[in-house]
Write a structure and sequence with these properties.
Blueprint lengths: L1 E3 L7 H7 L5 E4 L4 H11 L6 E4 L4 H13 L6 E2 L3 H15 L23 H26 L1 H5 L2 H21 L2 H24 L5 H15 L1 H4 L7 H16 L14 H14 L7 H26 L11 H5 L8 H20 L4 H25 L9 H22 L1
Parallel strand pairs: 1-4, 2-3
Helix pairs in contact: 5-8, 7-8, 7-16, 12-15, 13-15, 16-17
Length: 413
């Protein structure tokens, strides 16, 4: 059963469940207020409390064994309650018999594991306690830690952006433990920034949560207000219309930060245009635009090549130096213009294919890094220095590294 973050916040259902419990296990280090409350409810005569450390694996195994032989009452009280709950649930799940394909989890199939409050209410209570505990730690650091005390929102926001990118890497790599850790780092940034917001009188963590709750309800009338939207496209169209009609946003390209990274900004502008109907109906319709923009850039290369092959003087053959000039002049404004158009068209196709271009490009960069590193290793294994090879040999090693990577991936399937 769950008692709460403070004795005064104990859910009534948990208090009633303790009545007459007799011997009750509690997390080690439970403070006096909690101990007195649990002991009095378990047995008006001063029930016997048995402490258990959430980090004591042997003790937890023993507790699980006792539970298998009969009912055991555990009061998940105080700051260590959520951790103890996770450890007990993990052991209960691991010791439960295999469950068939009915969709029932092993934990749910364990009849000895009964929570008070039941079901989702118990999970929500634990979640609330963990968030409150995190907020309290941040509050303490903000007052007592010299470094945390001196930080401002402008100082912290750079770290927040870094955490978002690190989370993006973890998601792209499918690394669940890393994703778990990065989500925690990002959550810390949110809690700390909310604390700073409260110090400036701009709200607090609770008001931030309340506002986003209100916004989500307002923007999903098809869920919360009897509206209709049967496709993802209809949901997005309604979402954008609500922003303009109910939230007072003006213009087609409202609230697109100038500080966005270029790829993200391009995608957001395209989404804004799409919300008013200015969009391709499918990625297949937008795809030829990439070839069109590529052709316009190719014209500049052809122009440069033609200029480089011209005789240096009337009636004379071109010099070797002149023949080597094949790239467009980087100072020609048309070059940046056409490169930008090509990138913009590529982002548009990615958007219509529901591929995040930022994540896709980062993945491509990692593949390139991995393959070049592999090519250099192959060359070194054969007594060569990849950096000293000519381009054709470097490319040969690169293709070998790529082929080896593809073969390794296929063998895992």
């Amino acid at each position: 059963m769950y008692i709460g973050a403070a004795a005064g916040l104990a859910p009534a259902a948990s208090l009633r469940a303790l009545a007459g419990g007799g011997a009750v296990f509690v997390p080690a280090g439970l403070d006096g207020e909690f101990r007195d409350l649990v002991a009095e409810l378990a047995d008006p005569g001063g029930g016997r409390l048995l402490e258990i450390d959430p980090g004591d694996g042997e003790g937890l195994d023993d507790l699980a064994a006792r539970a298998a032989r009969g009912a055991v009452v555990v009061a998940l009280a105080g700051s260590h309650g959520p951790r103890l709950a996770r450890e007990l649930r993990r052991r209960a799940t691991a010791s439960a018999p295999a469950v068939g394909g009915s969709g029932v989890t092993a934990a749910a199939a364990t009849p000895a594991l009964v929570t008070v409050p039941p079901g989702a209410a118990f999970d929500d209570a634990l979640l609330g306690d963990e968030l409150v505990a995190l907020k309290r730690i941040v509050d303490v650091l903000r007052v007592e830690c010299p470094w945390d005390r001196e930080q401002t929102p402008r100082d912290i926001i750079g770290y927040t952006v870094e955490e978002v990118y690190e989370l993006a890497d973890a998601v792209a790599a499918g690394d669940l433990p890393a994703e778990h850790g990065e989500l925690g780092d990002l959550l810390l940034q949110v809690v700390l920034l909310a604390r700073m917001l409260s110090e400036q009188g701009g709200g607090d963590l609770a008001s931030v949560a309340a506002d986003i709750e209100t916004k989500l309800i307002r923007r999903h009338p098809h869920i919360f207000a009897g509206g209709t939207a049967s496709t993802p496209a209809e949901v997005k169209t309604r979402w954008e219309r609500i922003k303009v009609e109910q939230e007072g946003r003006e213009g087609i390209f409202h609230d697109v930060p100038a500080s966005f990274p270029a790829i993200l900004q391009a995608r957001k502008l395209q989404q804004r245009a799409a919300s008013v109907g200015f969009d391709w109906s499918a990625a297949a319709d937008a795809f030829p635009k990439i070839a069109e923009e590529h052709a316009e850039l190719a014209e500049l290369f052809a122009e440069a090549a033609a200029a480089g092959s011209q005789p240096s003087a009337a009636g004379q053959a071109p010099t070797p130096h002149a023949r080597a000039v094949r790239d467009p002049d980087r100072h020609d404004p048309r070059v940046a213009h056409e490169v930008g158009d090509l990138l913009f068209a590529t982002v548009n196709v990615a958007r219509l294919l529901h591929v995040d271009p930022e994540i896709a490009l980062r993945a491509a960069s990692r593949r390139f890094e991995r393959r070049v590193t592999g090519a250099a290793a192959l060359a070194a294994a054969e007594g060569g220095d990849w950096r000293e090879l000519d381009l054709s040999l470097q490319e040969e090693y690169y293709q070998r590294a790529k082929a080896g990577e593809t073969a390794a991936a296929s063998s895992k399937e």
